[in-house]
């Protein structure tokens, strides 16, 4: 039987205050379903959740959630930030996973770890019933009872899907009592990551939840971390969903998920990539960038991954398919047929390599990245440091017009923000940030700074309400990140996080960066020369290889990707080339930078052409609002 661990009545995805939509959702969930009646022998009833139990914080989370089969959206899905997958995509994933009615599905087991309102579950059960009927409708108790295990944390979704499931079963000529028994046997309302569910599945499929760690209660997160080694750093909750579902597979079993593609390349996905490389075969990968796979736009693009518990082998890849039922059906056939010569399918190898990022781009650009990686050191190995600006947790309280901030002069710093460099050069708009730290990193004593104390106290409601302040009440007035005043005084290169192309701006050492800006500093490299290297296409080349794509085909110029850039050591750059690079950086001359960087790296003509494609022409650069100074 399906066993669910007992849980408290607290919301495991919430720590502290909850929104009105969360509370209203629970009020709507109160009560036992009308069709929950005593069960006959053979199908033990699950422990239904009490009136107030776990509810995912999807009212504040932009989580992936699919459109359920054959139904209208229920009230509250918009408030929960739900994003719905088109049914054509659901069928496509079920086909690739091998969950098709030509197999004896009634003698096999399938897992849906986060069924929501039945988007994957109900079409899968239709296929199960087709297989069962094709076998002559054998005894329900002996065949269908163990065919499905489906878990859902949100009580309202559980109740809604249970009713739809019973309707589906009765419409397929299954008696109401048996339908209720099957629903009781198949559906579990609880936390998949903490539930005790027997392994031994032949299939797993669905759309795991996408929830940031800061929306999960500390105690619950600690339990997750103790159980799932793949949760490291800032890993999103879908990562352990992969781990748990893969672990539950039989040898030869297959998993098909659609979710964010970030884990394929970023740092927090490393442990999961390592886990996959040690016992699973990435059979199919479908890049869904730019497709209308969902009924809403999503910021981070999804990907479809089909993994099997079997020795590794070739990977069949498709990119950006048209979301059309017939098109996806043909594509599934091509992917599943190893002899297919379809131009829409590529076969690749050497993609999965321990914890290394999975890079599916086999272009000249990737070849150049690999060539550079074999010959040149990483940024930090050449004396360059990458960092990110300050996160306050309450910008409206800590940030304001510098001159208007009535605090002691050493308790504020001029702040550079993304909009200050939007033109391609620096135009400071006069903002500043409160600095509550001493030079040695300790919080200041507010008694020693009466003006700062008055300023902070006036804004205490906003500042003390942050999670970090509630967690450490004595340090309630700190910013999330410690501020180092020395950073403001260092010359630096500034790079905005989300951009279509690398945007590298020199700052002479007067301003402190805001959290949406990454910075590079160096005591070795001349920063203008380094700026020329980065704007030549080198930054675009490396970040493009490793960063997931965002909406609008933008990249994440985050530290974890910037640190992958390879450059020569400054001591190995000839003096004449140093000066020319410095001049090109000061002038933001893209074409000159490409020529000079080709010499710096000793690139061939074809490699230079690949680099030039990564750069932008000088005509597309934003016009300068004022000359830079160094």
Poorly predicted spans: 1-82, 617-630
Count every beta strand, where a strand is a DSSP E run of 2 or more residues.
19
User: Can you give the mean pLDDT?
Assistant: 84
Major pleated sheet? 9 strands, mixed
Radius of gyration, taken over Cα atoms and rounded to an integer in Å: 28 Å
Percent of residues in β-strands: 5-15%
The secondary-structure class comes to alpha/beta
Overall geometric form: globular
Query: What is the topology, as strand order, of the major beta sheet?
Result: 3-2-1-4-5-7-6-8-9
N/C terminus separation: 71 Å
Number of helical stretches of at least 4 residues: 21
Helical content, roughly? 25-40%
Describe what is shown at a glance.
Helices cover 32% and strands 14% of the residues. It is an alpha/beta fold and 630 residues long.
Fill in the keyword field for this structure:
alpha/beta; disordered N terminus; nine-stranded mixed β-sheet; 630 residues; 21 helices
Please tell me about this protein's structure:
- With 630 residues, the chain is of the alpha/beta class.
- It has 21 helices and 19 strands.
- It has helices at residues 20-28, 87-97, 121-134, 140-143, 155-171, 176-186, 218-227, 238-247, 270-277, 325-336, 364-375, 395-398, 450-458, 460-464, 467-471, 485-488, 527-546, 559-562, 575-587, 590-601, 605-614; strands at residues 110-112, 148-152, 187-189, 201-206, 249-260, 281-287, 302-308, 315-319, 346-348, 384-388, 399-401, 412-416, 431-434, 492-496, 498-499, 505-507, 512-513, 517-522, 555-556.
- The strands form 4 sheets. Strands 3-2-1-4-5-7-6-8-9 form a 9-stranded mixed sheet, sandwiched between helices.
- Residues 1-82 and 617-630 have low confidence and may be disordered.
